[in-house]
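QA checklist item 7 of 12: single-chain prediction sanity check.
[x] sequence parsed
[x] length recorded as 191
[x] structure emitted
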Amino acid sequence: MLRKLYDWVFSLARSRHATPALAVISFAESSIFPVPPDVMLAPMILARPDKAYFYAMVCTVASVLGGILGYAIGFYMTDLGLWLMNLLGHSDGLAEFQHWFDRWGLAVILVKGLTPIPYKLVTIASGLAAFSFPVFVAASVVTRGARFFIEAWVLRRWGPAMLAQVEKRLALWSVIGIVVLVGAVVAVKLL
């Protein structure tokens, strides 16, 4: 079963629809969608290392644009923003988000934008807290760009060797991936 899923992801990564799909996933993940773009980005880079930085740019631009939508949801549609935050496990409401930005300000965006913690938490919370929009956009460009370009660089440099190991021990790497994913979800719940 894992082999079929693995083969399907790689066939999608090589298809002519891969780049638009990557853009859509990156955009949606920054505001409402639960799946991070890395699930598309990594296989696409491994399939076409020569386009690694192009794919990182697509991810960055789409993610920042999706982040602007997330900010708008929090800023203009407070009830929807609070509902989404509650759905994501942050039910403490508007006061909690304003406290984040009052206490840590820009650091909230810079730290969370680089990590696998769902970025939609940051975008919606930034809007809910009425955080400075130009600073939000600038920080989003820096953090999302850094995250995706570092991932592209690592996968381009060591990807073929990593890919050989993943293919050799697919079940082990799948378990490790699930553990990391569960750890990220637990970290989000604790924050």
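[x] summary fact logged: The mean pLDDT is 79.
[ ] second reviewer sign-off
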